[in-house]
Amino acid sequence: MKKKQGILVLVLTVIVIGFLAFTTAVGFGSTGTGAAKNIKTGLDLSGGVSITYKAKGDEPSQEDMDDTIYKLQKRVSGYSEEAQVYQEGADRINVEIPGVTDANKILEDLGKPGSLEFQDSTGETVLDGSDIADAKGGITEDQMTGKKQYIVSLTLTKEGTKKFAEATEANLGKAIAIVYDGETISAPTVQNVISDGKARITGQQSIEEANELASVIRIGSLKLELTELRSKVVGAQLGEEAIRTSLIAGAIGLILVAIFMIIVYAIPGLVATLSLAVYVGLELVMLNAFDLTLTLPGIAGIILSIGMAVDANVIIYARIREEIALGKSVRSSVKTGFQKAMSAILDGNITTLISAAVLGTLGTGSVKGFAMTLALGIVLSMFTALVISRLLVNAFYAVGCKNEKFYGRQKERKTIDFVGKRKVFFAISLVMILLAPVGMGIFSAKDGKALNYSLDFMGGTSTNVTFNENLTLKEIDSQVKPVFKEVTGDADIQASKVAGGNEVVFKTRSLTLEEREELNTKLVEKFGVDEEKITAESISSTISSEMRRDAFVAVVVSTICMLIYIWFRFKDIRFASSAVLALVHDVLVVLAFYALARISVGSTFIACMLTIVGYSINATIVIFDRIRENMHGMGKNTDLADVVNMSITQTLTRSIYTSFTTFITIFVLFVLGVPAIREFALPIMAGIICGAYSSVCITGPLWYVMKTRFNRKK
After folding, report:
1. What is the pTM of this model?
2. In what order do the strands lie in the sheet with 198-204?
3. What pLDDT band is residue 80 in, cutting at 50, 70 and 90?
């Protein structure tokens, strides 16, 4: 690259960073398009709409309630992946959708729940709503006349496909009526046998009519008939303070990382800082562009991808220093450094991206939200590390930064005998892993709770209180929540203000009748509220058993996919199996931390575990990549243990620096955050330490044991 080109690249980079900064801070137009303030946030960060439905008729069975809740959860995820659906009392279902304020629009879009049947000309029901998987309004063009046709496309379930094939075969040339709540809303004529589970309803007069019919059909697939009981706009569960402190913590964390990188890596550190600035700007703009909902689990995904963005730069710059230490010129070292770092960066990021893709496809709720923000972050981090960083390093070299003192030289380091100490490492890991079942057993015997399950997992009591004045969130946190804690003895209290009034909804663990009476008395005494305006209902967990099952299946499938990819890339099943065993190790150790520290196990628990898995696998891949590279150059008489020890030692700086920079961002979040943020940050910090330990001390020696024992038997 010539000097003029280098200057142009640096100037353009500054302009791009300025443009991204302006976009995220101010945005464009009267609505501030692209501004960070317009990023959709979840119920925990900004609130949304809460709708309560009541089942018609006699008290429904729990099985029908669970089925309806699960299907509604799938349906409302179209508005936001972070939408929540849970049971209230025996026959009510709450739907909470973040980031929106128009309850009427949601009700119109969601449709009016009721019974849906497909009846033949004799009036016999051939399909019901439970046989419909999905329905969408759309526009097609008549092939004969070229006129627009407004249609509803139906996708049937497996059982529904079979039923519909038989029904259409038996009713060729006849009408099959779609009956909703006893009223025929459409009666299309069967023109051919439909056996592929796809059907179309024609005859609508507008796209609005087609969408309305599709909405009716979708909501009609529920097992229960529901009627709207009430709807309201609720405020953030964590409050404005949580957002403010999180933003400050994020900014401080990034500044500290930038200072650290510049001190340690000089010019490359400055490049990393500029690349990270581009990355953060692009991340915020893309969250807007893809209309993703940001919650605490989503923040976890972003934190992980920031860590991976820093990690990619550290890998590259460490490689450049190694090449300089071999006596190569700076220009040659930069070129070779990027080439040699490529495989480790790609393998680490692709492995995590595979996991994100599987979690996004199979997961629901917070798991899906986590996966989407993580996937976006990974793609952007690879782009900034492999494209932006390369351009900037070459630009700085072109404008005159050619002396090796600007880049550093890798010092010769004495090889550490990690393999020789493997028994000690394995023993330490075994003790840490056993702490999980031991701790869970002790607490289970003590208070019947192996883990400190939060409202998200256990359900509890929802208490609606109408105060005499409009309390701020800060006043609720400082004055009202302590009253609830006095009664419950538990700090896990969620509070949401209802817009347009003085009503506040408090969610706590399940309260007994005596506790409810005690709470009412204290609220009347301290705040002078009217006791008749205090109502309480039992609520189910927001993370249903079906959602937990989906999360478990998604994690298992993603782990298998990662194992297959590592096996394929490294041509050795032992690399893959030792990496997966290390993941299991990290998850069990962090589970022990949750059990012993009695940290609440809620929706952020799943995100925390997924963060640790992604972080750990990336660190392991870097070491395995170096082992693979060093094995290519080893002679017949080279001891395999020496290769493993040398590879871990060579990547040790990278392991320490990456863990340190990621830890910084979380630590600042922990120090400055509100209590809920701290409970979220603390186990992630434990996971970072555990992941660094397992990747350095466990995976390499474990692979060595598998490799040597297998060869000996052979």
Report:
1. 0.73
2. 132-141, 148-156, 198-204
3. confident
